[in-house]
Amino acid sequence: MPPEQSSHSTPAQSGADKRLLIVDDDERFCQRLARAMDRRGFVVETAGSVGEGIETARARPPAYAVVDLRLGDGSGLDVVETLRAARSDTRIIVLTGYGNIATAVAAVKAGATDYLPKPADADQIETALLAREGSLPPPPEQPMSADRVRWEHIQRVYEQCDRNVSETARRLRMHRRTLQRILAKYAPRS
Questions:
Q1: Radius of gyration of the chain from Cα atoms?
Q2: pTM of the entire structure?
Q3: Which fold has domain 146-184?
Q4: Which terminus of the chain has fewer CB atoms gathered within 10 Å of its CB, N or C?
Q5: Partners of residue 94 on adjacent β-strands
Q6: Cα–Cα distances in Å, from 158 out to 28, 145, 162, 171?
């Protein structure tokens, strides 16, 4: 299979610093993304936890970073803040399975350049990493459906309430039985 080609200039073509740090605790996703970004000319280093990400950011601050928001040992925002402190010009993309306005604002306040909901592919990530400062990203080819966005929000609040159905229902202002029915269903298609 030939390497994927991109229509815009990659760091390897421009001669710029092309070091990329990927911080994600989903090992399969992390390795797949690392291979794809390597084919695009980035020099990739990976970390599977907040601790590893912070250590790498301090030791070898990269020009680019892709950081998962929710990691097994804490918040990816801690890695974002460390990256920003270590190197102010690092372009940082935050990824999360729970795409919403509150987490997007938190990511940008912590120092992220952009924010993408999972599943994001290598093309979307590369576009976000290489976008000019202040430019708006193109709209997604297949945005999440309204039903999927609603389901993601409910799941996020449920997790934040430590999987307590009564507390989640109270916070979402919905009947407990209605919430239980929603939680019992599979996620709607995107």
A1: 18
A2: 0.66
A3: Arc Repressor Mutant, subunit A (1.10.10)
A4: N
A5: 67, 115
A6: 26, 20, 7, 9
3-class DSSP state for residue 85? helix
Helix residue spans in 91-175 (DSSP H): 101-110, 122-130, 146-160, 165-172
Would you tell me which CATH number, out of the four given (3.90.650.10, 3.40.50.2300, 1.10.10.10, 3.40.50.11890), belongs to the domain 11-130? 3.40.50.2300
Q: With beta carbons less than 8 A apart as the criterion, state whether 115 and 108 touch.
A: yes
Per-residue pLDDT of the chain (190 residues; tens, 9 = 90+): 333 334 444 444 445 789 999 999 889 999 999 999 999 999 999 999 999 999 999 999 999 999 998 888 888 889 999 999 999 999 999 987 765 566 777 778 888 888 888 778 888 899 888 887 666 666 667 777 788 778 878 887 888 888 899 999 999 999 999 999 888 887 676 5
Distance CA 113, CA 64 (A): 10
Lookup: tokens for 78: 């801690």
Contact in structure between 6 and 40 (CB atoms under 8 Å): yes
Question: C-alpha angle 133/80/8, rounded to 5°?
Answer: 35
Residue whose tokens read 């995107």: 190
